[in-house]
Amino acid sequence: MIHTLTLNTAIDMNIFCDPLQPAAVNRTRQTEYCPNGKGVNVSLVLHHYQQPTHVMGIFGGFTGRYIVEELRKQHINVTPAWVAEPTRINIFINDGSDEYKLVNPGARIDDEGKEQILHHLQCVAPGDYLVISGSLPPGIESRFYSEILVLCQQKGCEVILDISHPVLRQLLEWRPLLIKPNDDELKEIFGLDVSSPRRVREAMQTLHQLGARNVLLTLGAQGLYFSNGAQLWFCSAPKIELVSSACAGDAALVHSSAIGLTQTIFPCPGAGQRHRR
């Protein structure tokens, strides 16, 4: 079973409009709402590919109920930790040429919310996977990640990390199965430059030395790299019309962890591997 944990869930409000004008009434052409939060996104993509998945996370108010109800309508198993404050709403505006992202910090979480999460995590079992993905909401400190990793290690559950918090460097000591940084996160958290294939290879080696067993590096429109410590693969990104960038990295994470990234890409010649299809 692939469990996902989203500590800072959200509703995505996607707005499509003409180019924005200041000090004017900007009318929209279309508005869409969807459940969000990086772990929630992972489960949605897993479900799309008919992979069994279980959503765990923190939800509150009418917005939290909306997310849980929408997931259950799709027959996705959800175990919510309920809190008093409403779950946040994030806004993505596409004006035909540019995308604007307005991301809220999220509801403040008290000790009861954290205790609910630790209680729900008791369900993980040997052979399971837990994808911890997304940001920390107000009220939860970074040491909570370590509590979760201790529990998973005791239960024999493999952990996949997709977090942008500086504590990621310390968490590599737990030897997670996979981490999924992007280029900005590598620079900010580890001080690593990935501006060329050679530097990507060097960065991957550093991450493996720090404890990461597998690394998926996403570069947006430039594609992605995957390393298992022995080989390095590269996959280019197709040129498409941007509707929304939300969930793109989460979809890549699903392919690497559940569907088999090495079946769809080929070793990177610039990283010292033979180019083959």
Automatic annotation (TrEMBL):
Keyword annotations: ATP-binding, Kinase, Nucleotide-binding, Transferase
InterPro entries: PfkB_dom, Ribokinase-like, Tagatose/fructose_Pkinase
Gene3D superfamilies listed in its UniProt record: 3.40.1190.20
GO molecular function, one term: phosphofructokinase activity
Positions of the Carbohydrate kinase PfkB domain: 11-251
A single cellular component GO annotation: cytosol
Database matches in PANTHER family: 1-PHOSPHOFRUCTOKINASE, 1-PHOSPHOFRUCTOKINASE-RELATED
Family the UniProt entry places it in: Belongs to the carbohydrate kinase PfkB family.
UniProt protein name: Phosphofructokinase
Organism: Klebsiella pneumoniae
